[in-house]
């Protein structure tokens, strides 16, 4: 699913520092804080059961996710837009809105959970968003732009890209507080040779940096749903609990098919119970293999939109990825042994011992892989046994293979795909900035095309 990343000179291994669905017939749930109610009083948001039998719009956006919300908000500036989202509101759900409940949202396996759990065919535990705001309501909040090389390779207009990033950042990007142990980690990275020190930046650059976050200083999450504050309210209608199961094509345009509200099925509840929340408490250091050489595949099991697809990641199938992981772990070992990090380590325990002990105690239940007897190559074994997703999914719907450069589905009029599935490589250190940017960017482009066309015909 994620073939090699070959843009720019950023190294392939990136170290990351981790730091409601109750809806009435309209607006916010009663559990939302008064502040949230005031701030996000979206009168155009309704439950799907209130949908009229037939209605007409210039654009219908399926999925109010990380790309869908900025896209719908932008299109509503000049056109009538319908946004259909299968989940509920993010506001009033503590698991979404508080930084400290990151793991709780992922551990909630109820049918109304904002996260729909699934396990890949090769045993890696995953989640799909099911809430207005999509993955931005579940994610760890890291915000970083794509590199200029990535923007060039995508064939995007760099000026419009920059303007779109700025639009996104005005709404929901914050400079994080950096607590003491994270400062020590940053210093440790520099002492371990991960240079230069880039300070605070939203750019994707080589070295050590403090990136942006969508959590504010009070630990409150700001999500893509917040972009709807920028929408033109009279031209936007949002239906929640609106699972689109069909799109009917006509010669003259597009109309939505049936709306369903069937609760999604959990694929492997037993596996889900094994996710230990403690794994996500406190601080931990993640290593990401940026653009792995190993490739996998994704296939639909059925036409039911709630059914999880069959995904095989094949992480570490290519031995070069194992070696890259080992190099990353060696860097982390140097960081942990650095002077800067000294007061966060125990005198008698090496970094590797601590990591292996944690693994044996089962504190990283991020995959269902069987544990083997100790290997002669412990770092390689460590990489394989602690493999997890970092949820930066992309590649299910490539530009060139499924959609054209303008994100139109090949051979189909009036249908585009605008989301992270169109990316061939995961952009930046983390993708959400670019997913949001793409929603805004394509919204502006589509508007421009439509109004230029109309000007010409009038
Ligand atoms: C746990 C986790 C941690 C992450 N951490 C980070 C991070 O720190 N930084 C970062 O940059 N990225 C992170 N990501 C990745 C990032 O959040 C995703 O790349 C991004 O949210 C994908 O956006 P999208 O618009 O493509 O899809 P989504 O945001 O998932 O949107 C899809 C939307 O469509 C809806 N939908 C789907 N099917 C239907 C249907 N049939 N009918 C109606 N609605 C439908 C879904 O409910 C969902 O709301 C993380 C992701 C997860 C899950």
TrEMBL record:
Residues 57-254 form the Glucose-methanol-choline oxidoreductase N-terminal domain. SUPFAM superfamilies: FAD-linked reductases, C-terminal domain, FAD/NAD(P)-binding domain. Residues 292-439 form the Glucose-methanol-choline oxidoreductase C-terminal domain. It holds the Pfam family GMC_oxred_N. It comes from the Eukaryota. One of its GO terms (molecular function) is oxidoreductase activity, acting on CH-OH group of donors. InterPro entries: FAD/NAD-bd_sf, GMC_Oxidoreductase-Related, GMC_OxRdtase, GMC_OxRdtase_N, GMC_OxRtase_C. Keywords: Signal. Residues 1-24 form the signal peptide. Belongs to the GMC oxidoreductase family. This is Glucose-methanol-choline oxidoreductase N-terminal domain-containing protein. It comes from Oryza barthii.
């Amino acid at each position: 699913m994620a073939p090699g990343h070959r843009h720019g000179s950023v190294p392939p291994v990136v170290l990351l520092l981790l730091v409601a669905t109750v809806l009435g017939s309209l607006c916010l749930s009663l559990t939302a804080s008064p502040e949230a109610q005031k701030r996000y009083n979206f009168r155009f948001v309704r439950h799907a059961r209130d949908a009229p039998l037939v209605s007409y719009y210039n654009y219908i956006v399926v999925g109010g996710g990380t790309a869908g919300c900025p896209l719908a908000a932008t299109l509503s500036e000049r056109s009538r837009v319908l946004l259909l989202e299968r989940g509920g509101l993010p506001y009033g759900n503590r698991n979404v809105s508080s930084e400290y409940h990151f793991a709780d949202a992922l551990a909630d396996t109820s049918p109304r959970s904002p996260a729909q759990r699934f396990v890949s065919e090769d045993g890696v535990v995953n989640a799909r968003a099911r809430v207005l705001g999509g993955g931005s309501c579940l994610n760890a909040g890291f915000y970083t732009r794509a590199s200029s090389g990535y923007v060039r390779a995508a064939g995007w207009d760099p000026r419009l890209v920059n303007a779109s990033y700025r639009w996104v950042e005005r709404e929901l990007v914050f400079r994080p507080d950096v607590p003491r142990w994270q400062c020590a980690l940053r210093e440790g990275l520099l002492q371990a040779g991960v240079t230069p020190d880039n300070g605070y930046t939203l750019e994707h650059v080589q070295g050590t940096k403090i990136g942006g976050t969508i959590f504010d200083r009070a630990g409150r999450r700001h999500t893509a749903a917040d972009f709807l504050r920028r929408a033109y309210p009279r031209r936007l209608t949002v239906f929640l609990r609106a699972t689109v199961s069909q799109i009917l094509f006509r010669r003259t345009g597009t109309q939505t098919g049936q709306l369903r509200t069937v609760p999604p099925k959990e694929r492997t509840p037993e596996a889900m119970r094994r996710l230990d929340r403690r794994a996500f408490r406190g601080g931990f250091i993640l290593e990401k293999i940026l653009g792995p050489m190993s490739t996998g595949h994704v296939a639909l099991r059925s036409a039911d939109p709630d059914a999880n697809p069959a995904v095989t990641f094949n992480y570490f199938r290519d031995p070069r990825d194992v070696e890259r992981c080992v190099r990353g772990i060696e860097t982390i070992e140097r960081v942990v042994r650095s002077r800067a990090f000294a007061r966060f380590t125990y005198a008698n325990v090496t970094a590797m011992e601590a990591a292996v002990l944690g693994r044996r105690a089962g504190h990283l239940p991020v995959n269902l892989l069987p544990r083997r007897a100790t290997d002669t190559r412990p770092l390689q074994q460590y990489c394989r046994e602690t493999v997890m997703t970092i949820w930066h999914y992309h590649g299910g719907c490539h530009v060139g293979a499924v959609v054209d450069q303008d994100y139109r589905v090949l051979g189909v009029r009036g249908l585009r795909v605008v989301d992270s599935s169109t990316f061939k490589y995961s952009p930046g250190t983390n993708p959400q900035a670019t997913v949001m940017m793409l929603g805004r960017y394509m919204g502006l482009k589509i508007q421009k095309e439509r109004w230029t066309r109309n000007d010409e015909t009038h």
